[in-house]
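Researcher: Sequence recovery benchmark, item below. Answer with residues only.
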């Protein structure tokens, strides 16, 4: 009984961190970057929460796995991609400021 309670308590303690990680934080943690750790990735997610909508966060998260997608978006001539890139740059500046 004690081990079951201890296990339940450990899962409950870890759940908020795992369950509430945003798309950018999850992508950051899955990335192969040497500097990716829970503290840095959590900070980057907070910057994303402050500057990007949910759909923008999901789009930006894809850049971690596919950097070429970011370049394609950056050089795109569509209004929607240009507007997104402006928001994404603001996110990058916020993340650099908050997390450096």
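Model:
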């Amino acid at each position: 009984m004690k081990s079951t309670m201890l296990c339940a308590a450990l899962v409950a303690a870890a759940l908020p961190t795992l369950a509430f990680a945003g798309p950018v934080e999850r992508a950051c943690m899955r990335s192969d970057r040497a500097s990716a750790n829970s503290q840095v990735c959590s900070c980057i997610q907070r910057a994303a929460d402050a500057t990007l909508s949910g759909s923008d966060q999901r789009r930006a998260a894809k850049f971690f796995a596919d950097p070429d997608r970011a370049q394609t978006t950056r050089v795109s001539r569509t209004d929607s991609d240009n507007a997104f890139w402006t928001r994404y740059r603001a996110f990058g500046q916020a993340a650099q400021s908050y997390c450096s």
